[in-house]
Amino acid sequence: MATKLKDFDFTHQSKLTPSGGKDSYPWDDWFDGDIWQITYGEDFDSHPLMMERIIRTRIVGREGKVTLRHVGVGDEPWGIIVLRRSDIEGPNMRKRRETTENRTAARAAKKATAAEIEPPKTIDKPVVKKAPTVKRVAPTNGTAHTNGTATKRTPTKRLASAAR
């Protein structure tokens, strides 16, 4: 139950509110759009659930959105906070996207260049019909040539089948 106090010394600083009333967290770095992992005891001193509330309050003040997850450490269900400002693109994410786009463009250019260069055309030689083969036979009917042989043309398959 709540207790009403008559007096309290507000000059003493608590762990949750550092001097000057503002925390010394690097909000500009954490809210740059990249993924950040912050650890209880190293990066922040307040309870992780309290730090979540502080992060969400700060991002609303910057008119942004944040995606945030708690990661357990040991037996505790929290201890590490992973956060990313989700309404902007961070430097590392932008660099990764630009690299991917450059690779895609280079592949497309290489493919287009390969398509423009046609393989050398093979020159088809005109089809030449072969004449029927000529066999040299010994003259039987008295027709002799200078070398003592006569030539006789043998019919092609087409002529032989037409003759039947």
Structure, explained:
Helix content is 31%, strand content 19%. It contains four helices and five strands. The strands form two sheets. The protein has a three-stranded antiparallel beta sheet, covered by helices on one side. Strands 4-5 form a two-stranded antiparallel sheet. Strand 2 and strand 3 form a beta hairpin. The termini are far apart.
Task: Fill in the keyword field for this structure.
164 residues; alpha+beta; three-stranded antiparallel sheet; two-stranded antiparallel ribbon
* Cα Rg: 46 Å
CA(first)-CA(last) distance = 124 Å
- Counting DSSP H or I runs of 4 or more residues, the number of helices is 4
Global mean pLDDT? 80
Strand proportion, as a percent range, falls in 15-25%
Largest sheet: 3 strands, antiparallel
- Total number of strands: 5
